[in-house]
Design a protein that fits this description.
Structural class of chain A: alpha/beta
Distance between the termini of chain A: 69 Å
Radius of gyration of chain A: 20 Å
Oligomer: homodimer
Helix content of chain A: 40-55%
Number of strands of chain A: 6
Low-confidence stretches of chain A: none
Mean pLDDT of chain A: 96
Strand order of the largest sheet of chain A: 3-2-1-4-5-6
Chain lengths: ~350, ~350
């Protein structure tokens, strides 16, 4: 079943570092505040790290968690569950969207099978993308009728995510992203957002991979049924993850909690990562100080989730693919923001006049 | 004075290629339309090129035009004109924001002095960033009282821009950006936007590098005076550029016109590039098929300019630095979009089920 999960203390953003970063931004050869949100990003990154970075993030990695969902049996996705395994194989072979984006920017992908239904025996670990085999079970149960998993299984999934964060931190990773693969997982994420953002299924459920009106109505009904049956509570995040979560969603939650404990800033992908972030904040609110929202997903509930998190998205490109694609795009902006803070000349060093008079 | 400018025929976006790109996007291993605006970008890029690209843009370059403005004497900028030359030196030394962003993504900068007041004798051409010395005159006249330059000078500036586009095209550049450096040039750009977007100075003038309320009031008055004095016309773009334009703005306009003639897609930086794009479209409306708006600048008139162009910005990060910084950030998105179209596996090649049933 795997190790128990330990919730380590999570520091807040460092206000002294934030202030120093803000002050240093005013020394750089540009009009004050002319880099807008890139300045905010560099300041937030610095405050999360707890120190002014001296260089761009040395190592950047995307943790990509995969799992299957028993609730797929309810006809809530446009794709069959077998696509989860096929997409993992596609990631290993370098043909997935996330593969292309990671390759062009030199970000490592750590692909983690935490609960894919298929054994993935035919999927070799690639020299470029390691496949971490950490399967807790072959997909969740259909949470319309039964809890998705046991509390012990949810805890084991948290521990898988935490281990990945530990390893990245130990390996010198200074900027992470988090994404997922899992057919039907927007249904699980919608249920979690209902719990943690206190929202209604009809305001949170979206079309996921592209279901029609009837599919959307089924999805809303399924989420409503599950919330009624299990009565998951905001003050029991482990119970909520067990009841209506997913193995990859719980692993993402554990990843976020442990990354934050290490002061490792994490760029969230879309709706699924938003849901995991809400779960993580229910365990420990200071997690949010170490999170960056990449984009506003086209999935309906994303806005509610991000508003509850208080994280403004950097991009709004109508993405709804998942896999960490949005996270990778936004990691470029974070990297650029930190590079600007670290590498730009100052007015003093460049001999540029600071203002008129 | 430089060569005369020739307006070459400018092709439209190729509708057959656009259709083929849209169809191919549906074959890629992702839910239909799940890459949102990145799909639109790849399709627009393909249609501009007139062919489905087989690989990411091989060579990417940012054309950075610099010039000074006589209207700076009216107190419309927070910085003295000497900062234009100092910032060019900063770009050559690698300490400017644009230098940092270009370095981290491997985009070349072509810096062009088309009208800096300083001789730039102390600024060496760097091995990394060539300094193109194409000065037409040492800054413009103060257009509150006199035309900024003669029609012949404006035409020579157009020709400088066109020559840079010719060279990039001949050198295999497949994606360009355009930016500028020039103290007080948002005043000139505001005047041009008033002409080409038929807007009022008070709706277009912004705070530029950070002027106070009194400075903004002066700027609005100066633009109003200039429009009254010179009566620049939308159907005489050369005359408008001569009356209230700038040397770098005219060069950017020539660059856009010639790049479009070569089917070389150009990512616009902020408000200045938006103004040049409006001028270019007044010469030849099909230019717009080859333009990509990087971001919505924080400068007040940017929204009006982009709406008139009909170009939705990709980013909205409250940038107002110029130098091509926004263009470089968005060139990453274009590059990513094209890479995704070229490198993702198809459902057939990856053996992934396309839909349920």
């Amino acid at each position: 079943m795997g190790a128990a999960f330990r919730l380590l203390p999570i520091p807040s953003a460092d206000p002294t570092v934030a202030q120093a970063a803000r002050a240093y931004q005013l020394e750089l050869t540009k009009p004050a505040r002319s880099l807008g949100r890139l300045e905010d990003l560099a300041v937030a990154y610095s405050a999360s790290r707890g120190t002014l970075p001296s260089a761009r993030p040395a190592r950047r990695a995307l943790a990509l968690f995969a799992g299957d969902h028993g609730v797929a049996a309810e006809g809530v996705s446009a794709y069959p569950s077998s696509v989860t395994a096929a997409m993992m194989a596609n990631v290993m072979a370098g043909g997935a969207a996330v593969s292309v984006l990671a390759r062009r920017t030199g970000v490592e992908i750590i692909a983690v099978d935490v609960g894919v239904a298929d054994a993935l025996e035919a999927v070799p670990s690639s020299p470029v993308v390691p496949l971490r085999r950490a399967k807790i079970r072959t997909g969740t149960d259909n949470f319309r009728h039964r809890p998705a998993m046991s509390r012990a299984e949810a805890e084991a999934a948290l521990a898988v995510g935490a281990t990945i964060a530990d390893e990245l931190h130990a390996g010198g990773c200074e900027l992470a992203g988090v994404g997922e693969i899992g057919i039907a997982n927007t249904t699980s994420a919608a249920a979690l957002v209902c719990v943690f953002a206190e929202a209604r299924p009809e305001d949170v459920c979206g079309r996921g991979t592209g279901i029609d009106d009837a599919g959307l109505a089924r999805k809303i009904a399924v989420v409503g049924d599950a919330l009624g049956r299990h009565a998951p509570r905001r003050d029991d995040p482990l119970g909520a993850l067990a009841a209506v979560g997913g193995l990859e969603l719980a692993a993402m939650t554990g990843f976020l909690l442990r990354a934050a404990a290490h002061r490792l800033p994490v760029v969230l992908d879309g709706f699924l990562a938003n849901a995991a972030a809400l779960a993580a904040c229910a365990f420990a609110p200071t997690v949010v100080d170490h999170l960056i929202a990449s984009h506003l997903s086209a999935e309906r509930g994303a806005r509610i989730a991000l508003e509850r998190l208080g994280l403004p998205p950097l991009l709004s490109l109508d993405l709804r693919l998942g896999e960490g694609t949005g996270a990778l795009l936004a990691m470029e902006l974070v990297d650029a923001a930190v590079a600007l803070q670290c590498e730009m000349a100052t007015f003093a060093s460049a001999g540029v006049a600071k203002k008129l008079d």
